[in-house]
Amino acid sequence: MRLMFSSGAGYSHLAPMLPLARAARKAGDEVAFVTGPEAVRYLENTGLQAVSVGRPSDPDAAASRWRRAREEMAGMTADERLSHLVAEFMVGLGAAARLDDMVEFVRDWQPDLVIANLAERAAVMAAGLVGVPYAMHAIGPPKAAATMERAWEVANGLVRQRGLDALPPRDAVPYLDFWPAGLSPADVAWEYPTRWPLQPAGVVPTPGPRPAVLDGLPYDRTVYVTLGTTHNARPGVLESMVAALRDEPVNVVATIGRDGDVSRFGEQPDHVRIEQFVPQAQVLPAVDAVVCHGGSATVLGALAHGVPVVVLPLATDHFEVAAQIQAAEAGLAVDSNDGILDAVQKVLAERSYRESAESLAAEIAEQPAPAAVVARLHDLEVSIR
Fold first, then answer.
1. 2-6, strands of its sheet edge to edge
2. Pairing state of beta strands 251-255 and 309-311?
3. Pick from 13, 107, 149, 210: most CB atoms within 10 A?
4. Residue 338 CB partners (closer than 8 Å, separation 6+)
């Protein structure tokens, strides 16, 4: 079976798809992973065929687009902002710019199935234009059909320009969903209603070395602070998170990214440790709460270890994640750094938050592994034939 995976160029979008791509290759499938030129480096040493589509991003142009987006989204609700961002920027600008190159690759390589994700709608449109079936891979919580309606209007406009009346219906398209059902709201009409559960990448607890950053910490309880791989350089955010907890009698471990400047935090007491990078899976078994922005990898990692989460949402679907965490009582959402200390004190004091997180951990542990989902995709390909 020939499987084409496709992701936007952000590492946080590409990484969740790698376990399934590796499992497919191990099962004997021919796999090509299509992404932006700047992200090909993330595929080194994976054993996967890496394909670059589109032009490298221009930092100045990207900064200009973000300024424009912020201006256009001022005053919108969180759902409206996400809808606008996906439709007008991810699809109308990003996917549109690489669509013709994507179509050319799909026609030349002739995959049996395309596996795309939310951030790479060019692959979905290319599959429709060439007549190849596709599956959608989660990179965060599932999206409501109403939120994504405008994105589909833009996408259908782009394929009509290329001779296709409309993209095929989504009802039967498999949505490979690593988001725990216990977090997803009930009674929502989803963009992709056919859910195939999939265990998220690398979050289930496994034995491993205890990182040195945890040695010699003075307090009984530890809080892990992180902004993941995309937002860790946002000025002042991590600094304010750490400052909010600095005088609390808890250990604080913060990771700031491989290129982060530890000196920007100034001198810290012994119970506060600032590190560039520590594998999340090594830190989480030893912590009692996580403070983060709501990135899916961080949230899923915490919940898979039964650790409650305090979320300060920053962008895109972080607000959605924060609301779901709070509704599931697996943590708390705050709207500014001023609320972090109170929220951390509450999730540490009330056992119910830990119990809710542990319930979600049990659900994550039961989700099918990538190899099982690959076998299911093989059955799908046979039924399509």
1. 49-52, 30-35, 2-6, 113-117, 134-137, 175-177, 195-197
2. unpaired
3. 13
4. 244
Q: How far apart are CA 351 and CA 32, in angstroms?
A: 46
**Within a domain: residue 207?**
no
Nearest to 279 by CA among 303, 253, 261: 253
> Do the beta carbons of residue 179 and residue 140 sit within 8 Å?
yes
**Where residue 322 sits, what CATH number does that domain have?**
3.40.50.2000
Rounded Cα–Cα distance for residues 190 and 197 (Å)? 15
Tell me what the mean pLDDT of segment 305-322 comes to.
94
Amino acid at 347: V
Provide CB contacts within 8 A for 47, sequence distance 6+.
22, 25
Separation CA 151–CA 305 (nearest Å): 35
Crossing angle (nearest 10°) for helices 340-349 and 237-245: 50
Lowest-pLDDT range, 1-10, 195-204, 229-238, 303-312? 229-238
Tokens of 5: 């995976």
Number of domains in the chain: 2
Using one digit for the tens of pLDDT, what is the confidence trace for 146-157? Answer: 999 999 999 999
- Domain of residue 96 covers 2-199+367-384
What are residue 50's DSSP bridge partners? 33
Interior angle at CA 181, CA 225 and CA 169, nearest 5: 115
What is the mean pLDDT of the segment spanning 254-272?
A: 89
Both 218 and 336 in one domain: the answer is yes
Q: Which amino acid is at 36?
A: G
Question: How high is the pLDDT of residue 382?
Answer: 59
Residue 186: closest CA among 151, 149, 144: 144
58 touches 38 (CB < 8 A): no
SS3 category, 208: coil
Residues contacting 85, CB < 8 A, separation 6+? 69, 73, 316
Q: pTM surpassing 0.70?
A: yes
Is 378 within a domain? yes
Kind plus residue range of the DSSP H or E element containing 32: strand 30-35
Give the DSSP H or E segment for 175.
strand 175-177
Cα→Cα distances 21→29, 43, 49, 125, 374, Å: 9, 11, 10, 21, 9
Q: Are residues 235 and 184 in the same domain?
A: no
Cβ within 8 Å of residue 351, ≥6 positions away: none
